[in-house]
Amino acid sequence: MKNIYTPADIDRIMAATIGRLDDIAALDEGRRELCMERRAAFVATVGEQVAAEVLALEPSQKAGVLIFAGDGICGAYALATASMLHSRGCPANVVLFNIGGDMLSPDALRARNEFIEEFGQEYLQEVINPGPGFTMPEMTRRTIVVDGIFGSEYRKPLRGGYQAVARYINEHSPRVISIDLPSGMTTDLSVGMINRNIVHADLTLTLVGPTLAFFMPENAELVGRWKTLEVPFDADAMAAVHCSSRIIDAKAVRTVLPERPPYSSKADLGDALIFAGSYGMLGAAVLATRAATRSGCGKVTCHGPRCAFFVMQTAVPSAMFTTDGGDVDIRRFENPRECLGVAIGPGIGHSDDTVRGLEVFLKSCFATGKPLILDADALNCIAEKPSMIDFIPARSVLTPHAGEFDRLFGPHISHSSRVLKALEMASRHKIVIVLKGHYTFTVWPDGSVVVNASGTQALATAGSGDVLTGLMAGLVAQKMMPEVAAVAAVYIHGVAGRIAARVNGVNGTTAEDIADAIGPAIDSILNPRRQGV
């Protein structure tokens, strides 16, 4: 798995690699010069790699490259990029912000002087007084803009002239490469940022690595694509960082997926129980149950209302069906066979009888410490009677999309605020929250966050969440820990969506296609050489 760093992690790694200017200033002259040489070498390495990314876009003389440099180390990176581009025959115009004439940090000052010494002042516009005498440089959609105004060291909203520059860049929609971070964006989960006041990058070249902010939908237009530069960091500092957030990958999922022994029987492979369906919502029951049967578990039972009998026996004949006698909805929730993988929610509705039955079952499972998977209408039932939250068994998995999350935990203005709330609720109730989206976040009770990047737009179809719920129940039935099964199921679900889209197209993929692709998805993860995954 790849690390996702906190702002504090990034600060520690950067400090260990190039030192802090305040600490360096306190050293004797000889040691100070050595430390500044080390910083200069690091800046040059960043500049070389950013320049390579600019040249990969094949800039033409007519399109031009325009570089905005701030007064801190990010500005030094930008100036080093300009020097490297010029040395490779690609002239770049630089706008350097040095408000008042004495604001440049030692890094930016050194990079500026080196640029002037080698290439002169023809290509450098140094902004000392951003008043009426300053005119914005011309740019078109073909212009390549390198944004090096502010990086992760700047953690305040852009103001005044800087805000005007960000808006000017965004209005002209050039091709933008941001160094470290789009200027005006912060590395933490900021709530309420005004995006028009932040530079919109097509490509963000992060130094240490991404933070959780990179994966928020409200930041997608800011970050664009992102890539981690291959710059040398202090090895001990990198090894000392223990990231609580990570990006899941196939290799990690492969290590936890159960493999089927050659001589196993269905009795050895687990038993899943899914409470699903109500009158008019039987498709959800079919999808969740079908997904569970594709997960590798030995037996699957769907418990639903009587009206679902013929539908379930016809649509999913490999699964068993039970009912408590309610004609149109589920009234009693019971687990007589003590199934390990128990999921509740797809299409169950929220009638008074269903809510009462769910409350009784939750309290029973809470008393015995048996975790559940709660999705869709199960979450809506709990939202109608919030006191039920206190009886969700520890290590249970909740799988809300944004709307269900807000009904359960209150309205939120951004995905960042939902993730922060999910961290709080997971810790308080000792539960796992799978917050679904383009990047699905699985939040564990200990504060860990696992980000899934295997998804595809093809998953944005009715019933896709029901498929995920059934798949998750099937994995837990095979004795996977709920928190691990949640992460694995989300990843497999994404791979299944990609496989289904290859056959049916992104727009034409249905939840049924995703459910039927679960088997090939699991096989491709377990056997990457054979499948090419």
Structural description of this entry:
- The chain is of the alpha/beta class.
- It has 2 domains: 2-243, YjeF N-terminal domain (Rossmann fold); 250-257 and 266-531, Ribokinase (UDP-N-acetylmuramoyl-L-alanine:D-glutamate ligase).
- The protein is built from 20 helices and 18 strands.
- An 11-stranded mixed β-sheet has the order 1-9-18-17-16-15-14-13-10-11-12, sandwiched between helices. A 7-stranded parallel β-sheet has the order 4-3-2-5-6-7-8, with helices on one face.
- Strand 2 (65-69), helix 4 and strand 3 (92-97) form a beta-alpha-beta unit.
- Helix 10 crosses helix 16 and helix 17 packs across helix 19.
- The mean pLDDT is 95.
Write the layout of secondary structure elements.
Blueprint: E1 2-4, H1 7-18, H2 21-25, H3 29-56, E2 65-69, H4 73-87, E3 92-97, H5 106-119, E4 124-127, E5 144-148, H6 160-172, E6 175-179, E7 203-206, H7 220-223, E8 225-228, H8 235-240, E9 245-247, H9 250-256, E10 271-275, H10 282-294, E11 299-303, H11 309-315, E12 320-322, E13 341-344, H12 352-368, E14 373-374, H13 377-384, E15 397-398, H14 402-409, H15 415-429, E16 432-435, E17 440-443, E18 449-452, H16 464-477, H17 482-504, H18 511-516, H19 518-526, H20 528-531
Parallel strand pairs: 2-3, 2-5, 3-4, 5-6, 6-7, 7-8, 9-18, 10-11, 10-13, 11-12, 13-14, 14-15, 15-16
Antiparallel strand pairs: 1-9, 16-17, 17-18
Helix pairs in contact: 3-4, 3-5, 4-5, 10-16, 12-13, 13-14, 16-17, 17-19
